[in-house]
C-alpha cells in the first residue's frame, strides 16, 4: 500500500530500510514512536493515582 | 607472490571462512535451545501445581521426538517441496536420511549446522502448540500432533514461502524474512484447530458461557521463561540469515537478498521493546507485558531485514495491543487457549505478514536461484501468503485432532484432570504442602 522502498535494484544498494530516502516518512515514524513511549507512561500514572485513592 | 601461492592463500581463506560460518551456525543453534528452556519455564509456570510436571514433560518430549523425525523426513520435505505438492528428487536426495551428507562428512561443513537450525525451528513450532493445550491433552496424542506440525506441516510451508525458489516467493513476491508466517502463523492456527476439538479445561467456562481466569502457579517462572525465549530468539534470527549466498557475497536473507546482521539487531531489539510497552499499556498485566515481547517480535519478524527501526517499534507496539485483544475474542468464542498461543503466534503472525504488504511495498524481489523473476514485495502476495499459512496450519490441526477425538485418545478424562495430569507420572513437582487451589 505504501511504497516505502528507497531502492529499485539491489546492485550497489546502501541504506535499504523503509523510507530511507524520505525525511518526511522517517520523521512520521520517529514521532509515532515517541508518542507510543509517552502514552503508556500517562496511562501508568493515571492507574497509579487511582490505586493511591483506592488504598487510602 | 606466485599464482600458486595466491591460489593457496585463497583456498586457506575460504577454508577459514567456512569454519567461521560453521561456528556461527553451531552457536546460533545452541542459543536457540534457550527458546525451549524458556517455553519449558513458561508452560510449567502457567500450569497449576497439580499439572506442572506434565506440562514440562510434554514440552521436553516434543523437543526430543522432533529431532529424529526431522532427521527422518522433515529436512527432506523442506528441501524438496518448493514447487507445491510436487517432489523434487534432485534436491530431495540431499535430505534423504541415507544421503552421504546427512552425517559426519569431511567435505561438507554446512548440512549439519543448517539441519540443526531447522530442527530447532521445528521444535519451536511444537512448543507453541504445547502451551495452548496444557492441563488436559493426552501425552502420546500431543506428541504425534507435535511431530506432524514440526516435521511435516511447517516445513512444507517453509518450502513454499521461506525458500529462494518457493512458489509463494517466485510467483507472488511473498516476503517473510524471519518466519512470521511459516513458523508462527502456521503453529498458531494449527493450535487453534486442535483447541476446537480438545475443548476447554474443566472450570474454565461457566454454564452461561462466561469465562473464569485460571491462574498458573508461578507467574515469576512464566515471566522469566519468556525472557529466556527472547534470548533464544537471537539464535533463531541468526540462523535465518545466510552467508555468501546471494548477489556479491555477504550476509543475505533466506531468499538470498542482501542484508546485514546489524539490520536484524536494530529491528529485533526495537520490536521486543515495542511489544512489551504496547502490551503493558493495553493490559498492565505482567503476564501479557512479557508476552508482548513475543507479540512484538512476531509482528515485525516478516520484515526484520527492511524496517526503519522506529517503524519496527510501531508495528510491534500495535502487535502488543493486538495479541491480548485477540486472546479476549477467542475466549468469548469459547476457545480455551491457556497461554494465548493462537493470539500471540497466529494472529500477530498474520499481522506481521500484512504489515509487510502495507509498509514495505515496492522492494525488488530476489532469489538466489537462477531463472526466477521474483515480483516486488506487494500486498496481494502477502495476503495470499497469509491465507495459505492460516489454511496450511489450521486444516491439518483440526482434521487430525478431530480424528483423535473420535478415537477417544485426545483428551484426558475428567478424573485425571481433577486429580492433576501429574498423577499419570512418577515424581512430584513440589512438597505436598504446596497445593493447587
Question: Regarding CATH, which class of chain B?
Answer: Mainly Alpha
What is the CA-CA span between the terminal residues of chain A?
Answer: 52 Å
> What is the succession of H and E elements of chain B?
HHHHHHHHEEHHHHHH
- Helix/sheet category of chain B: mainly alpha
Any idea what the shape of chain B is?
A: globular
The SSE order of chain A reads H
Key words describing this protein structure:
heterodimer, A: 56 residues, mainly alpha, rod-shaped, B: 437 residues, Ammonium transporter fold, two-stranded antiparallel ribbon, 14 helices, 1% strand
Characterise this structure:
The complex is a heterodimer of chains A (56) and B (437). Chain A contains one helix and no strands. In chain A, 57% of the residues lie in helices and 0% in strands. Chain A is an all-alpha fold. Chain A has a domain of 35 residues. Chain B has one domain: Ammonium transporter AmtB like domains (Ammonium transporter fold, Orthogonal Bundle). Helix content of chain B is 66%, strand content 1%. Chain B has a two-stranded antiparallel sheet with strand order 1-2. In chain B, helix 11 packs across helix 12. The radius of gyration of chain B is 22 Å and the shape is globular. The N and C termini of chain B lie far apart (78 Å). The chains are: A mainly alpha (56), B mainly alpha (437). The interface between A and B is medium-sized, with 29 and 32 residues.
Task: Set down the secondary structure blueprint.
The complex is a heterodimer of chains A (56) and B (437).
Chain A: H1 23-54
Chain B: H1 3-46, H2 52-80, H3 89-95, H4 111-132, H5 139-161, H6 167-172, H7 180-198, H8 219-238, E1 242-243, E2 251-252, H9 261-283, H10 286-301, H11 309-332, H12 341-359, H13 379-407, H14 414-419
Helix pairs in contact in B: 1-2, 1-4, 1-8, 2-3, 2-4, 2-5, 4-5, 4-7, 5-7, 5-13, 7-12, 7-13, 8-9, 8-10, 9-10, 9-11, 10-11, 10-12, 11-12, 12-13
